[in-house]
Amino acid sequence: MRKVTSGLFHSVDGVVSDPFTFQYDSFDAELGQGMERMMTSVDTVVLGRRSYQEWASYWPNASVDQDFAGFINPVQKFVASSSLTAPLEWQNSQLMDAPLADFVQELKKRDGGEIAVCGSISVVRQLLFAGVLDELTLMTHPAVAGSGQRLFRDGDPATRLALKDQFRTSKGNVVSTYGLLVA
After folding, report:
1. pLDDT level of residue 181 (50, 70, 90 thresholds)
2. Contact (Cβ atoms closer than 8 angstroms) between residue 150 and residue 15
3. How far apart are CA 31 and CA 100, in angstroms?
4. Average model confidence (pLDDT) for the chain?
5. How many Cβ atoms are within 10 Å of 107's Cβ, its own excluded?
6. Which residues of 5-41 are buried (b: 16+ CB within 10 A; e: fewer)?
7. Is the Cα dihedral 161, 166, 168, 173 positive or negative?
8. Is 116 exposed, middle or buried, given 0-12, 13-18 or 19+ CB atoms closer than 10 A?
9. 150, 9 in Cβ contact below 8 A?
10. Residue 91: which H helix or E strand, with range?
11. Main-chain dihedrals φ then ψ at residue 52, nearest 5 degrees
12. Where are the domains of the chain?
């Protein structure tokens, strides 16, 4: 069965939205190597509507970060949305035709490489709490964002996680990978 993963840039105070506002100069070679590993193992991407719309307007014509553009533009992308209509314009993108957790659970049964949830904070939360997300990697930058969207909210279900891996990069980022703790 295929693995579903997500990696989010994260501030010390828990913000995961708009990492360019708190990343400063802390993106280092080790984070770059992690991105390269992800791009070689992933052949399917899951996006929510907001991330799809932001990324579809940016990445096809991006003038920077050509390595990521070379990955994200041709990769197969499935979009969770109740408001977008088919066909989607961005190359290799299609709408999910079933509820998010059910659709991704079925994707896991198909042949292929890893499935990555890119951006899409609400999708990450939904798949984590549905037990479909296999690994969550938080790349915590040594900065306090002060404001922005956090991954977890008051009222989320109590959920035990297992720390699968953790390391510190040369610029002080802490990369922690979690999986669901199965009783």
Report:
1. confident
2. yes
3. 29
4. 95
5. 18
6. bbbbbbbeeebbbebeebbeebbeebbeebbeebbee
7. negative
8. buried
9. no
10. none
11. -55, -50
12. 4-180
* Adjacency order of strands within the sheet including 174-180: 93-95, 76-80, 42-48, 114-117, 4-11, 135-141, 174-180, 161-168
**What phi and psi, each to the nearest 5 degrees, are found at residue 72?**
-75, -30
Task: Locate 125 and state its tokens.
Answer: 């939360």
Round the CA-based radius of gyration of the chain to a whole number and report it: 16
> pLDDT per residue over 65-109, tens digit each?
889 999 999 999 999 999 999 999 999 999 999 999 999 999 999
Considering the domain 4-180 in this protein, what is its CATH number?
3.40.430.10
